[in-house]
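Lecture 7 notes: from sequence to structure.
We start with the chain below.
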Amino acid sequence: MGDFATVYAPVRLFPGPAYLAPFARGAEIDARPEAARATVAWPDLRITLTGMREEVMAPHLRGLQAYVRSQGGSEALAIRVLSALSIFRLTIEPGFDPEHRAFDFVAGLTRATDGLCFFGGELYDGDGRPLLLNPAGGLVVPNAERVAARALVLVALAMRGLLDQNANTPHEHPAQVLRTRLISWLESWPELSAEAEPAELALLGAPIGTGRPQTAIDAVWRAEGAEVLLWALGARDQLVHDVQQHPYEMARECGVLGISRPCLLDHPALRSEADLKWQRRRLLAIHWRLVEQHLRPGPVPFLALPECGFAGEVDLERIPVAGGDLSIGGVPAFRADPMRVAIATAIASERHHAANWLIGVHPLYSRVVTPT
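Predicted structure tokens for the same chain:
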């Protein structure tokens, strides 16, 4: 019969021979990406890799999510399983071997894709750590020090994104000078340099106007995630879902580009786990409502969501409403100006992203998913 395992990868690919070779040493590899099929064979062991068709992935992932919840898995893990963009079914014949070749292959593929592996009723990460059934397992939740550093990195990224507006204008040179100062400031504090991801450092280091315009735009929106992290650190009393603060104002408030160490890094403390989960549910509800308006325009009894069993319990108290629906600028969402709805949706997406990172959906901020 053999053994079976499934790898869930948050990247869209089917691996070729060069990709598989590092964790299939000594094996013959026959990979056919166009057929979504590969075999890795030793004289006494054979692993067949089959890619799942895209049209069946969504229901499969919903089923896995339901399984995670039914087994008492964390909400962060239940969310993370939905990040898979490729699913590989592995058939191992005659089964896992004493030399651990099959284990090394499965673990190597999981690790290389930053994915998850399902085997024997358990989900594992690329290091073989159980994430579901083992009480000591689970995903890592960022501590207060990381949250403070991440908030400052996001504000710095938003500033950098805005500087691209000065490309090919008389203000380009001052913007380049400010960008250089921004890099030097970030490098002055080890916590920030360690928290910034490679792509974020690349954007900060790129001269004004040389990158993809969308990358700069996305960076500006990261300020909305910083708002949630500042709230989590107690630096915000509340979040208003359709109101923004200019990134430059946030930077001044947080001490970005200051000559002294940012106060946010000194003895940071997070709100309680219950408070973080409470806020995440609210941000999910707002994001869901705005996505729903895009997909199926029309009125929604927003205040009735808790009674309708909306994805669990959610407290909507003090979220502005109009006519029973979510308010956008004092108007029910389904009647609001489409541009204002689009802006509110972008705000909601970034804030939902930050809230999911806070509960441990993925240790890398850029890898967090926000399903609604």
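Points to note: Residues 273-295 form the longest helix (23 residues). The longest strand covers residues 86-93.
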